[in-house]
DNA sequence: CGTGAAACTGGAGTCGT
DNA sequence: ACGACTCCAGTTTCACG
């Protein structure tokens, strides 16, 4: 993971379909050398996957919410992961410092389906209550480069 | 945007470097038919871009925080966007319902640089105060498929 | 890490429905 | 208008130096 690797990743973030030769021309390597590095970065797990960034709105997932999760007693992160992974609307979740135990980012088609998903989180054992904030407008989204 | 488009997007999410012919073999179309659909989806903005999903930890961005933003008086979403876009550590932001005006997802190398970035957000005009929650452990991350 | 050759893919045009 | 087919330039992928 040297400086050239970083530059290659930077270029791939902007366009994951760039030809290896084009990348090589920028960073000063041959196409095969670039491919070898990309293969290595994939094997090492630095590059998780090649994906497309889709407009959530046109994909029919225009309703978003941030949910703070408050639990009774102590809930292990492992159990929280199990609960939250089961709800497909959960896009991102993490345990946090502060009064809440975890914060959850949810994305769904509309308010009713969001409410349904929220209900599925709430009924989980040891979940005391939740505090939700519906997203009104997205300001910044650099999630994938 | 029909059922086949959805399936194509689904396949591209999993591997954005799939050959059009391979995608066509799965959805029952020829390579050129798939390409035309992908080009159309790109032109329509349904597909925003082809990117790579990089492991934030190995990229040296292991510190994350959620920040609630409280403003004085009324701040337009446009101005908030301008302020937050200027801080590269801001990964995601949106205006929300509830007591906070906006919620911000930040990602940085370490605590000191996170504090610096937070300071840049705080000094913006009309920002009254912020409430931060540092992420202890990531539970779910389905941000990019 | 670079070079070269073989196989494959992408891009554009054309035709049929 | 949309999908299938064909050709050629360009790209990927492998060997080896």
Automatic annotation (TrEMBL), chains A, B:
Residue ranges annotated for the HTH asnC-type domain, each copy included: 1-62
Keywords noted in UniProt: DNA-binding, Transcription, Transcription regulation
PROSITE patterns documented for this protein: HTH_ASNC_1, HTH_ASNC_2
UniProt xrefs under SUPFAM superfamilies: Dimeric alpha+beta barrel, Winged helix' DNA-binding domain
Gene Ontology molecular function terms on file: sequence-specific DNA binding
Keyword Lipid metabolism attributed: no
GO cellular component, one term: cytosol
InterPro entries: AsnC-type_HTH_dom (IPR000485), Dimeric_a/b-barrel (IPR011008), Tscrpt_reg_AsnC-like (IPR019888), Tscrpt_reg_AsnC/Lrp_C (IPR019887), Tscrpt_reg_HTH_AsnC-type_CS (IPR019885), WH-like_DNA-bd_sf (IPR036388), WH_DNA-bd_sf (IPR036390)
Signal peptide range: none
Highest rank taxon of the organism: Bacteria
UniProt-listed Pfam families: AsnC_trans_reg, HTH_AsnC-type
GO biological process, one term: response to amino acid
Protein name: AsnC family transcriptional regulator
Organism: Amnibacterium kyonggiense
């Amino acid at each position: 993971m040297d400086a050239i690797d970083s530059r290659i990743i930077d270029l791939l973030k902007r366009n994951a379909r760039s030809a290896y030769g084009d990348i090589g021309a920028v960073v000063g390597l041959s196409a095969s050398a670039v491919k070898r590095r990309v293969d290595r970065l994939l094997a090492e797990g630095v590059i998780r996957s090649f994906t497309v960034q889709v407009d959530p709105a046109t994909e029919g997932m225009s309703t978003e919410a941030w949910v703070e999760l408050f639990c009774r007693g102590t809930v292990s992160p492992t159990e929280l992961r199990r609960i939250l992974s089961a709800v497909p609307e959960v896009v991102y979740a993490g345990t946090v410092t502060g009064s809440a135990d975890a914060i959850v980012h949810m994305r769904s088609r509309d308010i009713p389906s969001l409410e349904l998903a929220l209900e599925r989180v709430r009924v989980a054992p040891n979940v005391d209550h939740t505090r939700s904030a519906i997203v009104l407008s997205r300001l910044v989204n650099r999630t994938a480069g």
